[in-house]
Amino acid sequence: AQTVTQSQPEMSVQEAETVTLSCTYDTSESDYYLFWYKQPPSRQMILVIRQEAYKQQNATENRFSVNFQKAAKSFSLKISDSQLGDAAMYFCAYRSASNAGGTSYGKLTFGQGTILTVHP
Amino acid sequence: DADVTQTPRNRITKTGKRIMLECSQTKGHDRMYWYRQDPGLGLRLIYYSFDVKDINKGEISDGYSVSRQAQAKFSLSLESAIPNQTALYFCATSDGDREVKETQYFGPGTRLLVL
């Protein structure tokens, strides 16, 4: 079974600065997807960024980018020019791309979450 | 106008009571999911459904049941609620026809307290 680990329960950053959130995962599969979701105080789960494992190029979405290290099974999220609205819980998630059946297909496996505080 | 809605948003109930959480979506997606969120544990899958006739258990299905009444509706039931089912519950949907780009879209969540 796949596992996702976020070793930083809490992080903080000054407004306008850069912060990196860590995520590692364990899998025996070669084809999968990785996601970062943001959960602000409103509780809504919002997709931040997505990475396909077969792509070597790191995904970017405006101020958000990832450092995907497939061999190391690492998937960190970098937030540049941090804004007050970035304050939230961030979850890393894994999804198998295999259609081999079983209970893992289609489901997301989440990490424990990292609370990000942004100081003005 | 939210694409994925959940009712109720908050609920307090007593041990032993039956409770149903409802999820509706207007995205036209075939796949629907129920997760629960607990502090320090992230989100864990309870049940998922790939179409109206296809329902599967997730990793923590004990104590829960589901019903897929239509493509757009997926309900989660707690037949006899217990305090350790106190959690934040999320419904999610995804479009199975776009495997490469599949993304799950979440509802706003239901906070359940079992006394």
Write the layout of secondary structure elements.
The complex is a heterodimer of chains A (120) and B (115).
Chain A: E1 3-5, E2 10-14, E3 19-21, E4 24-26, E5 32-39, E6 46-52, E7 60-61, E8 64-69, E9 74-79, E10 88-96, E11 108-110, E12 114-119
Parallel strand pairs in A: 2-12
Antiparallel strand pairs in A: 1-4, 3-9, 5-6, 5-10, 7-8, 8-9, 10-11, 10-12
Chain B: E1 4-7, E2 10-13, E3 19-25, E4 31-38, E5 42-51, E6 54-57, E7 64-70, E8 73-78, E9 87-94, E10 105-106, E11 110-114
Parallel strand pairs in B: 2-11
Antiparallel strand pairs in B: 1-3, 3-8, 4-5, 4-9, 5-6, 7-8, 9-10, 9-11
List descriptors.
heterodimer, A: 120 residues, mainly beta, four-stranded antiparallel sheet, B: 115 residues, seven-stranded mixed sheet, 11 strands
Give a written overview of the molecule:
The complex is a heterodimer of chains A (120) and B (115). Chain A is an all-beta fold. In chain A, 0% of the residues lie in helices and 51% in strands. Chain A has strands at residues 3-5, 10-14, 19-21, 24-26, 32-39, 46-52, 60-61, 64-69, 74-79, 88-96, 108-110, 114-119. In chain A, strands 2, 5, 6, 10, 11 and 12 form a six-stranded mixed β-sheet that branches. Chain A has a four-stranded antiparallel β-sheet with strand order 3-9-8-7, with no helix packed on it. The radius of gyration of chain A is 14 Å and the shape is globular. The relative contact order of chain B is 0.33. Chain B has no helices and eleven strands. Chain B starts with a strand and ends with a strand. Helices cover 0% and strands 57% of the residues of chain B. In chain B, the strands form two sheets. In chain B, strands 2, 4, 5, 6, 9, 10 and 11 form a seven-stranded mixed β-sheet that branches. The model of chain B has no long low-confidence stretch (mean pLDDT 91). By secondary structure, chain B is mainly β.
